[in-house]
Amino acid sequence: MSLRWPAFLRAPCRPSWRALVVAVLLGAGVAAGQAPLGAWFVALPAASGLLALAARARAGWIGFAGGFGYAAAAMFWIVEPFLVEPEVYGWMAPFALVFMAAGMGAFWALGAGLGARLGRGRRGARVAGIAVGLVASDALRSYVFTGFPWVLFGHLWIGTPVAQAAAFVGPIGLSLLTLALAALPWLAPGPRGRIVGAGVALAALAGLWAGGTARLNAPEAPRDPPVNLRLVQPNAPQALKWLPEYRLSFFYRHLDLTAEEPAPGKPRPDLVIWPETAVPFLLNDPGAGLKMVAEAAGGIPVALGIQREEGRRYYNSLAVIGPDGSVGQVYDKVHLVPFGEYMPLGDLAAEFGIAAFAAQEGNGYSSGPGERLLDLGRLGRAEPLICYEAVFPQDIRRVPTRPDWLMQVTNDAWFGELSGPWQHLAQARLRAIEFGLPLARAANTGVSAMIDAKGRVTDELGMGVEGVIDAPLPPALPETLYARIGDGPVVALLALLAVLIFLAAPKWRVDPGAGRV
């Protein structure tokens, strides 16, 4: 008896291998739009080609292959944490990349497959449905299983004037605009319809670009009173950061950078910010550490990333240290990284006697009580974001009152130097646009940056650089539309578009060139 593949893996249930390979390559082309390349002019045509291919073939399969290629190209940095100790964890790296890419493929397969069904066999309607389905997959991925809104379709515009639209529609709305532009050439049948659709897409893109440019060029009132910050970047490689022979030297490096005199013409900072988990001691057992921090700062408060213990639980925290070394306000990270900072269901497993993964037993971090603001007096109210928390705009909206600025402390040394840290920086820039707030970012190995309320980097330290940024905090803008309404209206619009496409599909003109591959 010969071994046969399951039916869904064989033609005609799946497209040809050639179509699947093309889908993988198109997905990788879409990934070119993400940081650090930012090649939107490659990504947008690739997304358009992927929509057309999915409309002709088995959309779910094409979606899976495209998502696989996209994630493999955009998120290859996922292997970097396993290479910090390659002799122990290196063998896991290829599996992590494959499973991550397959997970992205599953989201795209779901969106493309269900979206294609809205079209009822009409090619233009299928393209529209697939586009809506893929945007819905971005929305789903942003929220389910604690959310992972990384490298969304709309993120390819970060660094261009088009990203300013996020102040009104947010990241999912930006994804909808992106796939609408990609779908337009295929909505009407025939060569003439494609030319007209492409022309409409280019005109719409030009309008978005012009509108974003106008917003970027609009005058802004200066911050009153002015606030000057020092962002410390010690450049402590992750493989060395916690080794006994290095950890104290890295702490002293923080102190030396904090104590540096400002460059000529630079004012003395009002606040010093250190990155995530910056010190080799616990907040509740600092020894002389906090006094040393205060002495190095010379009377200036310091906000630093630090770990703390409470009972048998540990927290990834940010604490404000006063001029006398006293502990002021403390924020405990709320949105933890699954499998990285805690094990999902670990506390539940402890109820059944399996405590090895339980945060309540000190095996991983525990989540803090909730989002909050740090009241820094004349420096304003800052919303603290520890590392991963900067990728969740829905979490930023949970604070009861609007902050004056955003403060991110992070350690991106886990993710190499090629793409992961740059994508994390891009996310921070988008948060600034979405909320109309400046963002100060202190990163262990980079990229530390001062970002204004329109997402522009006003000062930065690149990867692998030791130093400080002394820079004024840019002013905030009036509260944006997205800050007020969030993602709800865009998600409702997606549902409405799905219904309209389904109802309109029978009347959609058939493209005589449509077929299956």
UniProtKB/TrEMBL annotation:
CN hydrolase domain residues: 232-475
UniProt GO cellular component terms: plasma membrane
Pfam families: CN_hydrolase, LNT_N
Spans through the membrane: 20-47, 59-79, 91-115, 127-153, 165-188, 195-212
Chief subcellular location: membrane
Keyword Cell division attributed: no
Membrane topology: Multi-pass membrane protein
HAMAP family found in the cross-reference section: Lnt (MF_01148)
Role according to the record: Catalyzes the phospholipid dependent N-acylation of the N-terminal cysteine of apolipoprotein, the last step in lipoprotein maturation.
Protein name per its UniProtKB record: Apolipoprotein N-acyltransferase
Organism whose genome encodes this protein: Paenirhodobacter huangdaonensis
